[in-house]
């Protein structure tokens, strides 16, 4: 290896680590949503379907902001796009102060989350494709999976923080105290401003999407318009369905765990799963909701393990096959959740996060492969898919649960989505070949 090659590799590694640190920030923001869902049900007296509007506020911002952000990033570059996203994210975090101290309404918090998420959408539109082009294409899925593992570490911490601050004390429902909710977002805003300062002074390498293929040793770039490339279009559709599953499960995990682990008989007497009771005693959780939040924290540990191991496993098993196998595994887990085996199914549900771990990065990297100069716009369609799916998923799943009083019917939604993910994984080589042929005739 030449001296210039070593220098290039070190530069790319530094850039990768800096951008990967951003994944922790948006991971924390998203993981806190799952705890907020249950918290607002408790203190603001909103239904499951209404609390799902929290996700609508967040992912509605993704839906609206992603494409304009991609068009802007094409003009100003990845680094300035990240800086813009960080600035908007900090503003959204600090808006929690007037929301909790002045307005004190559910809709004020939804507005704060919308602004915060507009910043996240801008960051994700820049960061995800940037990581995929920081090296050879064959390693893009694994590289993005490792970057997303930083996101998973935040998913481990946030439910524990949320469980301690939001469920760890008695609440006066007549005059609720929002200070425990405001604190983590004020800290988040300050951290984001610090990161903004760091990114203002460093210089990330400028990656030319058009020439990246040649630099990475792969000259194949598909020239056909995006809509004529089925590996991309089916990838976006699969991402949309996967996010419906992920957000729906995350949003109501606390509800499911509590209702499955604690069972009331006809006389109104409660029976608690021995393992759930043990978890509560070990964590000193104030109540069942807080205990369930710690169970979700364990699930997020599995999520992080899955992402860290996804890259090395994908060197042995092709990414598209690994995606299909994990889709099958998750379909089985969801079927067991739908069976609602009292005091049992809640212990199986955390495995869902292990098998979800690689899905977003693998689907993303597989679908933007060989797109060259169209990569940034292609990435925005994934963010739009995330926004569209997130906007409806929790509301739809909550409505199904409220309407039919059946966990089986509500969890049928993610089951269908994981089946679709499996199909995309198995069909990917044929879809990629069709995209290549479309480019050859363009």
Description:
This protein has 442 residues and is mainly alpha-helical. It has a single domain (14-202, 225-440), classed as Growth Hormone, Chain: A (Up-down Bundle), CATH 1.20.1250.20. Helix content is 80%, strand content 1%. The chain has 18 helices and two strands. It has helices spanning 3-43, 48-51, 53-76, 78-94, 96-103, 106-132, 140-167, 179-201, 209-215, 230-261, 274-283, 288-314, 319-339, 345-348, 351-356, 359-367, 375-404, 407-440; strands at residues 262-264, 270-272. Strands 1-2 form a two-stranded antiparallel ribbon. The longest helix is centred in the N-terminal third of the chain and has 41 residues, at 3-43. The radius of gyration is 22 Å and the shape is globular. The two termini are 38 Å apart. Residues 211-219 have low confidence and may be disordered.
The largest sheet, given as strand count, sense and whether it forms a barrel, is:
2 strands, antiparallel
User: What is the rounded Rg?
Assistant: 22 Å
| Level-2 CATH architecture | Up-down Bundle
Quickly give the structural class.
mainly alpha
How far do the termini sit from each other? 38 Å
Strand content: under 5%
Which bin fits the share of residues in helices? Answer: over 70%
Residue-averaged pLDDT: 84
Determine the CATH superfamily. Answer: MFS general substrate transporter like domains
Outline: globular
Total number of helical segments?
18
């Amino acid at each position: 290896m030449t001296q210039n090659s070593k220098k290039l590799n070190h530069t790319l590694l530094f850039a990768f680590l800096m951008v990967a640190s951003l994944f922790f920030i948006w991971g924390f923001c998203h993981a806190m949503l799952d705890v907020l869902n249950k918290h607002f049900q408790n203190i603001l007296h909103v239904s499951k379907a209404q609390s799902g509007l929290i996700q609508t506020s967040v992912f509605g911002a993704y839906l609206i902001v992603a494409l304009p952000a991609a068009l802007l990033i094409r003009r100003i570059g990845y680094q300035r796009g990240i800086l813009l996203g960080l600035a908007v994210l900090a503003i959204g975090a600090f808006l929690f102060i007037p929301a909790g101290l002045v307005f004190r309404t559910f809709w004020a918090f939804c507005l704060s989350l919308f602004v915060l998420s507009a910043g996240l959408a801008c960051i994700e539109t820049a960061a995800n494709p940037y990581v995929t082009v920081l090296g050879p294409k064959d390693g893009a899925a694994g590289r993005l999976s490792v970057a997303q593992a930083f996101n998973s570490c935040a998913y481990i911490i946030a439910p524990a923080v949320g469980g301690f601050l939001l469920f760890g004390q008695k609440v006066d429902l007549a005059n609720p105290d929002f200070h425990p909710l405001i604190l983590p977002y004020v800290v988040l805003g300050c951290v984001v401003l610090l990161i903004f300062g760091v990114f203002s002074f460093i210089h990330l390498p400028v990656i030319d999407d058009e020439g990246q293929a040649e630099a990475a040793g792969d000259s194949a770039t598909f020239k056909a318009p995006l809509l004529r490339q089925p590996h991309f279009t089916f990838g976006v559709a699969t991402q949309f369905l996967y996010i419906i599953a992920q957000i729906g499960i995350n949003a109501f995990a606390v509800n499911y765990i509590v209702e499955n682990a604690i069972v009331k008989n006809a006389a109104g007497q409660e029976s608690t799963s021995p393992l759930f009771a043990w978890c509560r005693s070990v964590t000193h959780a104030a109540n069942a909701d807080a205990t369930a939040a710690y169970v979700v924290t364990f699930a997020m540990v599995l999520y992080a393990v899955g992402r860290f191991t996804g890259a090395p496993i994908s060197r042995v098993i092709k990414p598209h096959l690994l995606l299909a196998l994990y889709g099958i595994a998750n379909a089985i887990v969801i079927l067991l959740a739908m069976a609602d085996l009292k005091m049992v199914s809640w212990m199986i549900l955390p495995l869902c996060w292990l098998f979800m771990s690689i899905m977003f990065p693998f689907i993303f990297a597989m679908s933007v492969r060989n797109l060259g100069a169209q990569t940034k716009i292609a990435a925005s369609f994934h963010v739009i898919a995330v926004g569209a799916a997130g906007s409806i998923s929790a509301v739809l799943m909550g409505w199904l649960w409220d309407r039919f009083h059946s966990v089986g019917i509500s969890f049928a939604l993610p089951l269908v989505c994981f089946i679709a993910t499996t199909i995309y994984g198995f069909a990917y080589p044929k879809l990629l070949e069709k995209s290549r042929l479309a480019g050859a005739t363009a």
